[in-house]
Design a protein that fits this description.
Layout: H1 2-22, H2 30-37, H3 44-79, H4 91-110, H5 119-146, H6 150-174, H7 177-187, H8 196-214, H9 217-223, H10 227-232, H11 237-259, H12 265-277, H13 282-304, H14 315-340
Helix pairs in contact: 1-3, 1-13, 2-3, 3-8, 3-11, 3-12, 3-13, 4-5, 4-6, 4-7, 4-11, 5-6, 5-11, 8-11, 12-13, 12-14, 13-14
Length: 341
């Protein structure tokens, strides 16, 4: 039964990826898309749209969705909190703070807005996002060595997020309008920023990080049993918690650096995977969550680029519009099942 569910998810991802290649503001016939993908000569403009825009977006959405979903599952497991997500420890806010320092101060200090620097500006934003996220993650890891309770660490992470947002607010107030607009656009999130060599590097990084996250399945299963029981079974609680936080933080840092802060997927998808597979076993939940995240991200990217829209809608708006009703339905169904029992 579970194997058939995995097969359905994989088919859904393939179908959604194909539809992402077919649909957009420019209508390209199915036959021409197939010819372009198989290397045959065709319309050069259409070929550029497929190879330089739609295919990179689809691959980016698959990897970003899977990474954020797995990160959310790790956070919900280590804190045993259904409302925990990739941004719960302020790591996403750290990425935003890093980008804010680079984007909002570039015009004031350097005299040239970062948004005018093209590829160099995009690279600087990606590096700043990674540095900001890793800096907050290192701070969280240092704090985790000083405090014992997960709840205390969770509260500290939330406070770090508020502090980062406060600093960002001050930087916005002091920055030129052009820089503030560039930062706001980055904060809306997008799968279309990654292309060419950047896309290849992003896919390679995620192909390495996601299997490494799967190596933490056994400690995560033990953490579900409670700290005392897991310690009796020989698990080093502090070390396991640190490894899970590192894995989740690095996934969030890489995705945020390339795509901007993508909200809701990391929070919602683990619940969706649990509802579909009806298990808390992470050997099943980990790949299931990754596949569900990839499928939902592809669906959101497709809606954002539907014909009729000029350009593309902000991904964060679409993830909330698509994901919130799904999770509400899942929670109501779970409540109905509990009442029925």
């Amino acid at each position: 039964m579970r194997v058939s569910k995995f097969i359905v998810l994989i088919i859904a991802i393939v179908v959604l990826a194909i539809v992402n290649l077919l649909l957009g503001s420019v209508k390209i016939p199915v036959a021409d898309v197939c010819r372009i993908l198989f290397g045959a000569e065709g319309n050069e403009i259409w070929a550029n749209i497929i190879w330089k825009s739609r295919l990179p977006q689809a691959l980016t959405a698959i990897m970003a969705g899977a990474g954020l979903a797995v990160s959310g599952l790790q956070m919900q497991t280590v804190f045993r909190n259904p409302l925990a997500g990739p941004s719960v420890l302020g790591i996403s806010n750290g990425s935003a703070l890093g980008v804010a320092f680079v984007v909002l101060l570039s015009g004031r200090i350097g005299g040239v807005a970062l948004s005018r620097l093209g590829y160099l500006g995009d690279a600087a934003m990606s590096v700043a996002a990674i540095v900001g996220a890793l800096a907050v993650m290192l701070l969280i890891l240092w704090i985790s060595q000083k405090v014992k309770g997960n709840v205390t660490l969770l509260i500290i992470g939330v406070m770090i997020g508020y502090l980062a947002n406060a600093i960002i607010g001050v930087l916005k107030f002091l920055s030129p309008e052009e820089d503030v607009k560039a930062f706001v656009v980055w904060g809306l999130g997008s799968f279309s920023r990654v292309s060419g060599d950047e896309m290849i590097l992003f896919v390679v990084l995620m192909c390495v990080l996601l299997p490494l996250a799967c190596l933490l399945v056994k400690p995560m299963n033990l953490l579900l049993l409670g700290d005392r029981y897991a310690a009796n079974l020989g698990l080093n609680i502090r070390r396991a918690r640190m490894l899970v936080i590192i894995s989740s933080g690095v996934l969030v840092a890489i995705v945020t650096a390339y795509c901007g802060p993508i909200m809701f997927i990391g929070l919602a998808v683990p619940h969706l995977a649990r509802a579909i597979f009806r298990t808390s076993e992470h050997r099943i939940l980990m790949p299931a969550t990754a596949l569900c995240g990839a499928a939902l991200a592809l669906l959101c990217n497709l809606i954002a680029r539907m014909p009729g829209f000029e350009g593309a809608l902000p991904v964060n708006s679409v993830t909330a519009l698509v994901g919130a009703p799904v999770i509400a339905m899942v929670l109501f169904r779970r409540r109905k099942d509990e009442v029925g029992e």
